[in-house]
Amino acid sequence: MPRATRSDAQLLVQEARAMELFANDVEVAPERTQEYWDVSADLITLVSDVEAFEAEYPDADNDDFDLLHLRRRLRLIGARLTTLSLE
Questions:
Q1: Average confidence (pLDDT) over 2-7
Q2: Residues near 42 by Cβ (< 8 Å), separated by ≥ 6?
Q3: C-alpha dist (Å) from residue 52 to 6, 48, 85
Q4: pLDDT digit string, tens, across residues 46-55
């Protein structure tokens, strides 16, 4: 039986969930706690947006403008979390 493949939208949902796990493990200096909560709120909003997009456009591919925009938002949040964890 062939394996089912995941759509690009489903893969982005998985990446967003993995970013949530990373965010849970980030250790932040006390003076940067507010910034951490701001990034976390952005991530929660993004995960919701990605899930809604995946439900509405399950077959969207990597060339879809909205999917690219969501992926870019995820990368920016990841960069912000990485910066917080390095300081």
A1: 68
A2: 73, 77, 80
A3: 16, 6, 29
A4: 999 999 999 9
